[in-house]
Amino acid sequence: MQESSRMEGTVKPKQIESVESILEKYIPEDELKEVKRILFGQNRGTSVSVQPVNQEATDIANANNFQVLFSKILAEKEQLRQPRIVRIGIIQNSIGAPTNAPIHDQYMAIQNKIEKMIDAAGAMGVNVLCLQETWHMPFAFCTRERYPWVEFAQPVTGEATQFIQRMARKYNMVIVSPMLERDEVHGSTIHNTAVVVGNNGNIIGKSRKNHIPRTGDFNESTYYMESTLGHPVFETVFGKIGINICYGRHHNLNWLAYGLNGSEIVFNPSATVTGLSEPMWGVEARNAAMTNNYFVGSINRVGTEHFPNEFTSGDGKPAHKDFGHFYGSSYFSSPDNCRSPGLSRVQDGLNIAEVDLNLCQQVKDKWNFQMTARYEMYAKFLTDYIDPNYQPQIVRDPSIKKN
Amino acid sequence: MQESSRMEGTVKPKQIESVESILEKYIPEDELKEVKRILFGQNRGTSVSVQPVNQEATDIANANNFQVLFSKILAEKEQLRQPRIVRIGIIQNSIGAPTNAPIHDQYMAIQNKIEKMIDAAGAMGVNVLCLQETWHMPFAFCTRERYPWVEFAQPVTGEATQFIQRMARKYNMVIVSPMLERDEVHGSTIHNTAVVVGNNGNIIGKSRKNHIPRTGDFNESTYYMESTLGHPVFETVFGKIGINICYGRHHNLNWLAYGLNGSEIVFNPSATVTGLSEPMWGVEARNAAMTNNYFVGSINRVGTEHFPNEFTSGDGKPAHKDFGHFYGSSYFSSPDNCRSPGLSRVQDGLNIAEVDLNLCQQVKDKWNFQMTARYEMYAKFLTDYIDPNYQPQIVRDPSIKKN
């Protein structure tokens, strides 16, 4: 929409780096502390503590031009349970080659980038990692062209997953790999899928996108439909993981279902642009983490992707070849109402949070949201609501004349 | 908790006025614009536009030591519907007399304050107004003493409502009056209720608090239980109104039900203190407004209330006589992802937003959250979930040994 000046993953220089960087640049320490407390929350009485990144990861990042952030979000000590410390990583990246390059070259350019970023995650001892939505391709669904883009689709057991399996084994890491899936068994259909690879390199299972946008450049139902796989939660050696793909973050019931199925970490791999959703980005995931009492890793790709042929956006404006700047800003939300710093709005990055998963139950025990939730009432409410003849509970001022 | 130095509605001077005031004090205009866009959203391409308050309201506010804010949140012009411009007001206030004064004196001290604030609302042409939770009394439920506090309870037709009816008639204003209700017909029980008074001074109906906290100082179930009145939406001459009282803001299903019943404005009259919920205050209501596509007026009382007898808070700390600073910060959220400035964290105030209610449907049409919501799936999900033998959808890594 507003950025279209250069190619591949770059943006106009006037893009700000992040809100946090501006606050820190100008606001004096005392007042900054209060601003951060109110805007970003507190974990055990202080802002989320930012930690140094080790030398090995720093070197990899500097050599490959990406950012690494590292924070800690801790919990109280308990008497009967040991702390369950897990390092969670999320990766945001631009594409690696022009969108008119051969498909496999484009794929390899991204895989090569990602490999370095996973190396850095490995150097930092990350236990659970999630990549961005359909990480192995440009987000070409705005074009509404089937070819060549569907050629990026792969079976769950394809090349992308095999690469992820290698990396998982190499670093004893659980890796969530959001990808465009070709389901050869079921009519060769395409799906927006997340494959969960265990720390031994085994494929634990897959989840699919539950809510498909149909707005502006994002009518992805040209390519794939809503998941019929429910809200699976993957129990890994490093915690229970749900994956709420992209547009599902606007649907509170979707977040809820992943929570009620036991998630301790929910990833939200996304692709969304400046001007459309950015003011929602810092709100929805945090609300989900607070009200469902799990950690959220929010991931957005970064950069501007230009396509060979022009397309329109259903907004009355002239045809164009890109649909705006993916603003990155990937970050973590915690069950106790705080958030980590976000990655850059303009650069590739790896964000890491060391968390104690015990915090999920501790916050549940403190706030009692689940105990006071009255799910019976809402099961009945929704069952009534889906009746085509549902009558909303309206109390009308009798002095209003009916039209 | 942290503030206990003085009496009635005052706080230690180190309390900041608001986050907005600090951002505006330090950040240069260009970068401030970007920070505001990302943190507070945009309405038709710009930040919510702050408007001048007229002379009459300014004079009343100055004479009575409260703040008035006024913003506009507009919509696009449509071909078939006229704009539906409504001025919405929300009031936050400290109590007016010490909590050991005679009950009726305490009540009158608050009523006298509120009367001036409604006068200012009238001078500004407010159409729909909501007061704070149990506006006619201190928030004494932390004491767990039944007497004298239950003496503040009144029947829906009592003195507090009669006062509101007079003001509603005087200013042709719909007024939502959140109060402690004594239901004499039903066992003389007490309820946390909101009475909706029409612009002719008629009582349209009542709503009650759906979710009752049971955490720390807030186990209000000593006094009243959960509503059995559902999620009524009141159709007034100035729009359709739902009331989500206080703790209900942590429950996404509660927000959802008010939305599905047709709310265009949902008020969230609350009472909540610094250190407990403040980082959630700017998140939950905005998430509700965005994802359900209605306006939200979030109201929190202001000041520190000291009680005659000491009480404990279930947190292992010594007994004390106040439970912290109510941080005010009342504000509006819009269906298009933006928010108004908030009132002060330390002073009484009236916040007004002129809105076009057509924005609700326009945002629904743009984002299609309702169309893509899959309510059938979630009706079934919740119905399954409430079965005591529900089996969560867990996919376990087979390499994990069962305990």
From TrEMBL, chains A, B:
Residues 86-357 form the CN hydrolase domain. The keyword Protein biosynthesis does not apply. Pathway: Amino-acid biosynthesis; beta-alanine biosynthesis. Keywords: Hydrolase. The keyword Hydrolase applies. It holds the Pfam family CN_hydrolase. InterPro entries: Aliph_Amidase/BUP, C-N_Hydrolase, C-N_Hydrolase_sf. One of its GO terms (biological process) is beta-alanine biosynthetic process via 3-ureidopropionate. It catalyses: 3-(carbamoylamino)propanoate + H2O + 2 H(+) = beta-alanine + NH4(+) + CO2; 3-(carbamoylamino)-2-methylpropanoate + H2O + 2 H(+) = (R)-3-amino-2-methylpropanoate + NH4(+) + CO2. It is an enzyme of class 3 (hydrolase). Its EC number is 3.5.1.6. GO terms for molecular function: beta-ureidopropionase activity. Belongs to the carbon-nitrogen hydrolase superfamily. BUP family. This is Beta-ureidopropionase. It comes from Cavenderia fasciculata.
